[in-house]
Write a sequence for this structure.
């Protein structure tokens, strides 16, 4: 009875050991796979549009992207005193010029930004001097 008991205990220990070993092996395997795919996803998504909306929410005012020969969004609404920042995400230079001449960014090469603070309420139309068909509107409340 004493021998049988010891033997059962040994078998139980062996089983436990095997289970732990298996669990460790599975965990290690799963962990490696997850890390690899997560790293790839992060690298791919990095230069994407994820940062855009986050920046917009944090700064107040508004962000406008110049991409594919267009202002995006074409119309933004802000409060008086807030700033609109234009970012050239295109592969060619653009400008941001108020139709009423109130502001003129000059040439914005790819990657450059231009900001303008709107102090008075109203609707302000602007365009790109290089591509006159690029038009946008800032509504200041
Ligand atoms: Cu342009």
């Amino acid at each position: 009875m004493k021998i049988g008991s010891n033997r059962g205990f040994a078998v139980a220990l062996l089983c436990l050991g095997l289970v732990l070993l298996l669990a460790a092996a599975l965990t290690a395997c799963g962990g490696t796979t997850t890390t690899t795919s997560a790293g790839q996803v992060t690298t791919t998504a990095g230069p994407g549009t994820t940062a855009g909306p986050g920046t917009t929410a944090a700064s107040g005012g508004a962000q406008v992207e110049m991409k594919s020969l267009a202002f995006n969004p074409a119309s933004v609404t802000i409060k008086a005193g807030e700033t609109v920042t234009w970012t050239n995400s295109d592969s060619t230079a653009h400008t941001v010029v108020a139709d009423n001449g109130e502001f003129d960014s000059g040439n914005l090469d790819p990657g450059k930004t231009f900001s303008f603070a709107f102090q008075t309420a109203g609707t302000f139309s602007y365009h790109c001097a290089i591509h006159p068909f690029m038009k946008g509107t800032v509504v200041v409340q």
Summary: The pocket of copper (II) ion is lined by residues 94, 128, 130-131, 134 (CB under 6 Å). The beta strands are 62-66, 71-72, 75-78, 83-88, 97-98, 113-117, 122-127, 135-140. DSSP finds two helices and eight strands in the chain. The two ends are 90 Å apart (CA to CA).
